[in-house]
């Protein structure tokens, strides 16, 4: 985290929906210029946290400030500094891309030449300037997602909240969004990015908070988080009657989890890999059955919760 | 075949789970059948409307005139009004000059005046006056029919008196008494009966025409009576209106479709919520109030435009005259549009989903239009429904259109109606805003 006062500061934030605690004592600080990732499975509380930061919902207890001001107050100036890319494609499908941007720009007080200039800029930035007159309903999913992002950038926010902005889109559009966000972040834009894709958090975020059941389970840079794993690599092999005995024996030397019919063996610190190869030979298993992977955020999530991000 | 049965079973399972479809499939038609049944008195021992206010001014001291008033009182279709109630609640008998202002104020739409000279010594027959405000064609036709039936049932007695009076003046008392005695003797000889009693009835004017009218068996009896009874018709309101039927038709259907249009607009809130548009807006400098009131304002504008366009179409197609009343018509349309929009907002605020909102709206709109007078006159319905209809915005909207286009009311005369529409709008919007606050539309 960079020095200076945080742009977003949450302290013991609790949010309930009836009997369900969507956020349970969330505390974290996000510095200006950070690309902060909120990684967790569906229903973990990511969107709820985003909506609290955006001032759409009120928190039940704790404090949450954006740029030093409580979000509950929801002052107009605080809202002008913030852009939200909702999880769903929040656009008027019957209107053109340009008309949509004009509406949202005007709501943020942009008028005349300034509005035209900003519309031109964001359309160009997301790569759909040539389709500005096209109706949104005629766009591909990827184009709609890019326009969804463009609408949040019109008023040049200082803080951008991206709530799973790449759900269900093609790799080309995803890359375009990533590159744009990384460029904007380099230019000083603070980004809070929620996702359940480990790869996205790894690629984009300078710091990540892992969230599940409304609690922050781990918080830090990628290196800091991975350093919490008690192994340096993960060995995967298919779950079958052939490998059943091996999996049992490996349990004595580390953790063995089974996900989607694949065993994941994470050896304890100091475990010698030569012991592993000897065991596979004893069981008559071919080396091609085994793959070795560097530890990932998903492995950390599994370590922390006993579940995968997709569960 | 097995697949067909499985799929049919699946559709029934979905139907059972879908409360809106169940509502539209069973409850809506049932309620409408019930309302129509009440209006058209299906399976009723007393067919026909009841309790239509009818003012009666009796200026005659003829006993037959009093029995005519009694006959009108006995007719269930009418609620006979003979008293004028002053502001200080004191009462006096209604007088003919009272009728026009009270009819313009829509206290009643029909009145019968029995003049002092109901039976004249100069002409044969009876003379009556009927005042009317036939703002609803169907109602006016029905009332005229029932009035004629009742009047013709009582008029023969008056006719007999008229003939006796003229004969007495022409031939003198003695010769008339001799004539009556000879007729009574002849009737008693031919048909039986007490000669003295028959003579007394003839002298009192009972010449047997009453039985002719009551039985209605004789062809042309009604026609004969209508020639003998001179009914002077006075149309108090709407004399200059060229297309009275179209005026009501367009008003009723315009309100109905306005309700559907603004409800669809209000339920658009659900689509915007699902699309995440509220999230985007609320994260910016837009408040919940901004969203709600923008919807309201949009609904009012849409409603105003729709109503004005439909009335202009009515002018082009049916000659509804709106030329001289554009200003007041726009005022009424604005108030009606506001009331209709508030209704749409209420439906959206009470419903959990857009589908539910559509189902509830269809039910309530059709019900309100039925009991509010958009389809048939309110006076045709039982009293409890008439009371309920006054709580509906359809009733007051129709009232406003009628006042402007039929009665050519002034702005001051419109104020009570506008006040009722404004009150409905304020009350319904207050509930809607409260529901939106505590509801989950913005979650």
Overview of this protein structure:
The complex is a heterodimer of chains A (311) and B (443). Chain A is α/β, with parallel strands linked by helices and 311 residues long. Chain A folds into two domains: 8-226, P-loop containing nucleotide triphosphate hydrolases (Rossmann fold, 3-Layer(aba) Sandwich); 234-294. Chain A is built from eleven helices and 14 strands. Chain A has helices spanning 46-53, 76-80, 97-107, 112-125, 141-153, 171-186, 198-204, 222-226, 241-250, 273-282, 297-305; strands spanning 8-17, 20-30, 35-39, 61-66, 69-70, 82-85, 159-163, 190-195, 207-212, 215-220, 234-238, 254-259, 262-267, 291-293. In chain A, the strands form three sheets. In chain A, strands 6-7-8-3-9-10 form a six-stranded mixed sheet, with helices on both faces. Chain A has a four-stranded antiparallel sheet with strand order 2-1-4-5, with helices on one face. Chain B folds into two domains: 52-235, no CATH class; 244-438, no CATH class. In chain B, 67% of the residues lie in helices and 8% in strands. Chain B contains 17 helices and seven strands. In chain B, the strands form two sheets. In chain B, strands 2-1-5-6-7 form a five-stranded mixed sheet, with helices on both faces. The model of chain B has no long low-confidence stretch (mean pLDDT 82).
How is the topology of this model organized?
The complex is a heterodimer of chains A (311) and B (443).
Chain A: E1 8-17, E2 20-30, E3 35-39, H1 46-53, E4 61-66, E5 69-70, H2 76-80, E6 82-85, H3 97-107, H4 112-125, H5 141-153, E7 159-163, H6 171-186, E8 190-195, H7 198-204, E9 207-212, E10 215-220, H8 222-226, E11 234-238, H9 241-250, E12 254-259, E13 262-267, H10 273-282, E14 291-293, H11 297-305
Parallel strand pairs in A: 3-8, 3-9, 6-7, 7-8
Antiparallel strand pairs in A: 1-2, 1-4, 4-5, 9-10, 11-13, 11-14, 12-13
Helix pairs in contact in A: 3-4, 3-5, 4-5, 5-6
Chain B: H1 2-17, H2 19-39, E1 52-58, H3 63-74, E2 78-81, E3 83-85, E4 91-93, H4 96-104, E5 110-114, E6 126-132, H5 137-171, H6 173-191, H7 195-203, H8 209-215, H9 221-228, E7 229-235, H10 244-274, H11 277-283, H12 288-318, H13 326-350, H14 354-372, H15 383-389, H16 393-405, H17 411-438
Parallel strand pairs in B: 1-2, 1-5, 6-7
Antiparallel strand pairs in B: 3-4, 5-6
Helix pairs in contact in B: 2-14, 3-5, 5-6, 5-8, 5-9, 6-7, 10-12, 10-13, 10-14, 10-16, 12-13, 13-14, 13-16, 13-17, 14-16, 16-17
């Amino acid at each position: 985290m960079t020095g200076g006062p945080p742009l977003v500061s949450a302290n013991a934030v609790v949010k309930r929906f009836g009997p369900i605690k969507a956020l349970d004592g969330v505390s974290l600080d996000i510095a200006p210029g950070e690309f902060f990732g909120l990684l967790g499975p569906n229903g973990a509380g990511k969107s709820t946290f985003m909506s609290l930061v955006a001032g759409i919902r009120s928190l039940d207890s704790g404090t949450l400030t954006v740029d030093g001001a409580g979000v509950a107050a929801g002052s107009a100036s605080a809202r002008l500094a913030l852009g939200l890319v909702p999880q769903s494609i929040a656009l008027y499908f019957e209107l053109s891309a340009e008309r949509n941007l004009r509406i949202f720009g005007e709501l943020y007080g942009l008028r005349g030449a300034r509005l035209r200039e900003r519309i031109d800029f964001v359309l160009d930035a997301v790569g759909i300037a040539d389709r500005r007159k096209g109706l949104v309903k005629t766009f591909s999913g990827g184009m709609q997602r890019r326009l969804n992002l463009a609408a949040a950038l019109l008023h040049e926010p200082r803080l951008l909240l991206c709530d799973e902005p790449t759900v269900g889109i093609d790799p080309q559009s995803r890359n375009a969004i990533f590159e744009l966000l990384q460029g904007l972040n380099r230019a000083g834009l603070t980004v809070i990015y929620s996702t359940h894709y480990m790869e996205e958090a790894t690629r984009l975020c300078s710091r990540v908070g892992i969230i599940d059941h409304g609690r922050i389970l781990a918080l830090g840079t990628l290196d800091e988080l991975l350093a919490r794993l008690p192994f340096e690599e993960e060995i995967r092999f298919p779950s079958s009657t052939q490998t059943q005995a091996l999996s049992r024996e490996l349990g004595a030397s580390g953790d063995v989890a089974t996900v989607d019919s694949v065993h994941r063996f994470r050896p304890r610190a100091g475990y010698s890999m030569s012991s592993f190869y000897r065991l596979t030979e004893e069981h008559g298993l071919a080396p091609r059955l085994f793959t070795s992977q560097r530890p990932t955020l998903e492995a950390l999530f599994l370590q922390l919760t006993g579940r995968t991000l997709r569960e | 075949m097995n697949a067909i049965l499985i799929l049919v079973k699946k559709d029934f399972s979905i139907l059972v789970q879908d409360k809106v479809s169940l509502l539209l499939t069973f409850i809506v038609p049932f309620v409408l059948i019930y309302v129509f049944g009440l209006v058209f008195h299906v399976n009723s021992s007393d067919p026909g409307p009841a309790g239509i206010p009818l003012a009666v001014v009796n200026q005659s001291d003829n006993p037959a005139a009093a029995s005519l008033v009694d006959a009108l009182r006995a007719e269930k279709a009418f609620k006979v009004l003979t008293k004028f109630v002053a502001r200080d609640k004191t009462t006096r008998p209604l007088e003919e000059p009272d009728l026009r202002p009270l009819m313009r104020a829509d206290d009643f739409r029909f009145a019968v005046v029995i003049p002092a000279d109901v039976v004249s010594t100069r002409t044969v027959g009876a003379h009556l006056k009927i005042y009317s405000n036939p703002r609803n064609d169907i109602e006016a036709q029905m009332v005229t029919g029932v009035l004629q039936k009742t009047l013709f049932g009582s008029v023969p007695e008056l006719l007999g008196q008229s003939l006796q009076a003229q004969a007495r003046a022409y031939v003198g008392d003695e010769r008339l008494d001799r004539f009556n005695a000879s007729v009574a003797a002849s009737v008693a000889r031919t048909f039986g009966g007490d000669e003295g009693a028959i003579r007394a009835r003839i002298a009192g004017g009972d010449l047997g025409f009453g039985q002719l009218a009551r039985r209605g068996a004789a062809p042309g009896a009604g026609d004969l009576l209508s020639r003998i009874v001179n009914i002077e018709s006075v149309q108090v309101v709407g004399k200059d209106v060229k297309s009275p039927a179209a005026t009501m038709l367009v008003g009723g259907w315009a309100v109905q479709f306005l309700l559907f249009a603004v409800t669809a607009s209000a339920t658009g809130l659900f689509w915007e919520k699902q699309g995440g548009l509220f999230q985007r807006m609320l994260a910016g400098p837009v408040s919940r109030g901004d969203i709600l009131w923008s919807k309201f304002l949009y609904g009012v504008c849409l409603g105003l435009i729709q109503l004005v366009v439909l009335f202009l179409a009515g002018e082009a197609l049916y000659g509804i005259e709106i030329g001289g009343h554009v200003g007041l018509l726009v005022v009424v349309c604005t108030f009606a549009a506001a009331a209709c929009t508030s209704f749409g907002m209420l439906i959206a605020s009470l419903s959990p989903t857009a589908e539910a909102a559509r189902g509830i709206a269809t039910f309530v709109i059709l019900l309100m239009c039925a009991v509010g007078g958009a389809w048939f006159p309110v006076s045709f319905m039982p009293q409890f429904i008439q009371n309920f209809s006054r709580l509906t915005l359809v009733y007051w909207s129709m009232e406003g259109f009628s006042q402007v286009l039929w009665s050519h009311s002034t702005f001051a005369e419109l104020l009570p109606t506008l006040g009722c529409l404004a009150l409905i709008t304020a009350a319904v919007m207050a509930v809607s805003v409260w529901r939106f606050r505590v509801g989950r539309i913005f979650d």
